[in-house]
Design goal:
Blueprint: H1 4-17, H2 43-69, H3 75-108
Helix pairs in contact: 2-3
Length: 111
């Protein structure tokens, strides 16, 4: 299990590795001109990609179910598509739970 502290350290090292912290950010605070979404390969992009993949898997499963009802596909294809959609959804839910847990842990830290 990943602890919130380990996640924070990994995030900080990733930020250093990609060169985040341009001019005006020497004090550790982002400048007002920096984009809110962060770098293109940042955490937000990963979450967006995971959500897009989960939605695509769900839509594919729906199309497979409709095709099976119409007699255009085999049952095994429907079951496979549903299993893939379920796995994607479980992954997104697990990430969400870890983000909430990390946020709650950060909120409990003394200032």
């Amino acid at each position: 299990m990943i602890t919130p502290l380990a996640a924070a350290k990994a995030y900080a090292s990733a930020q250093k590795g990609i060169g985040v912290g341009g001019p005006g950010e020497a004090d550790g605070m982002p400048s007002l001109s920096s984009p809110a979404a962060g770098p293109p390969g940042g955490f937000g992009a990963i979450l967006k990609s995971a959500m897009t993949d989960a939605m695509a898997a769900s839509k594919h499963a729906e199309h497979q179910m409709a095709a099976q009802v119409a007699g255009r596909t085999e049952l095994v294809d429907v079951v496979t598509a549903i299993s893939a959609a379920e796995a994607s959804l479980e992954t997104v839910i697990a990430v969400r739970d870890q983000v909430i847990s990390a946020y709650q842990e950060i909120m409990r830290m003394p200032i």
